[in-house]
Amino acid sequence: MPIEPNNQVVIALLAKEWDLKGPPGIMDVSDIVAALPLAPSETLAALKDLYTHGLIDMNKLKTSAFLTPEGYDALEGEREA
């Protein structure tokens, strides 16, 4: 499954956090929005789409997001393609 460009940017950021701090690459949503060159609405839409497809998960309050193993593997697959 190809990953949409905005979704790929979000996954790449969470994967970087995963690589630097260890799985699952947890970040506050506000930090994700601040770190990316996307409009906040685009970032939130990407988070929702990734969550729907099971590539990320979120805490109960939806204030933090993190990669699932499937999300990390999907990004690795995109890098190899």
Task: Describe the fold and architecture.
The chain is mostly helical and 81 residues long. It contains four helices and three strands. A three-stranded antiparallel beta sheet has the order 1-3-2. α1 packs across α3 (40-52). The longest helix has 17 residues, at 5-21.
Overall number of strands: 3
Number of helices: 4
What fraction of residues sit in β-strands?
A: 5-15%
Distance between the termini: 11 Å
Tell me, briefly, the overall form.
Answer: globular
Q: Could you state the order of secondary-structure elements as H and E?
A: HEHHEEH
Return the structural class.
mainly alpha
Nearest-angstrom radius of gyration?
11 Å
Query: Low-confidence parts lasting 5 or more residues at pLDDT below 50?
Result: none
Q: What is the arithmetic mean of pLDDT?
A: 93
Residue share in helix: 55-70%
Q: How is the main sheet built?
A: 3 strands, antiparallel
* Strands side by side in the biggest sheet: 1-3-2
Notable features of this structure?
11% strand, globular, 3-stranded antiparallel beta sheet, mainly alpha, 4 helices
Secondary-structure blueprint:
Blueprint: H1 5-21, E1 27-28, H2 29-35, H3 40-52, E2 56-58, E3 64-67, H4 69-80
Helix pairs in contact: 1-3
Can you summarize this structure?
This protein has about 80 residues and is mainly alpha-helical.
